[in-house]
Design goal:
93 residues, mainly alpha, 2 strands
């Protein structure tokens, strides 16, 4: 399995890429999901997104050790995005 996971990163690295930022999201609060769920977020999808980000963080940490000189960062936007959706008034809307 590592071959399939590592190959894209090694390809980017070989082409000179050294800094990569990965973004997660609030999948259960995407507009299409909320449209189909009476304007509510679907917590099950959000829980899956959080689990995915936890696993992704572990991979990011491992890649940064395995591939010398690579600076791979996971941008945690779940909390920010969720707060914007559930508390829009705190963002001036």
């Amino acid at each position: 399995m590592w071959v399939y996971v590592m190959n894209p990163w090694q390809t980017l690295y070989a082409s000179g890429t050294r800094k990569i930022v990965l973004f997660g999201g609030v999948d259960g609060c995407e507009p299409i999901v909320r449209l189909q769920n009476n304007s509510q977020c679907v917590n099950f999808f959000n829980e899956l997104a959080l689990e995915f980000e936890a696993g992704l963080k572990q991979l990011v940490d491992e890649f940064n050790v395995i591939i010398p000189g690579l600076y791979l960062v996971l941008a945690y936007q779940y909390n920010i995005e969720h707060d914007m959706i559930t508390n829009p008034q705190s963002f001036g809307t």
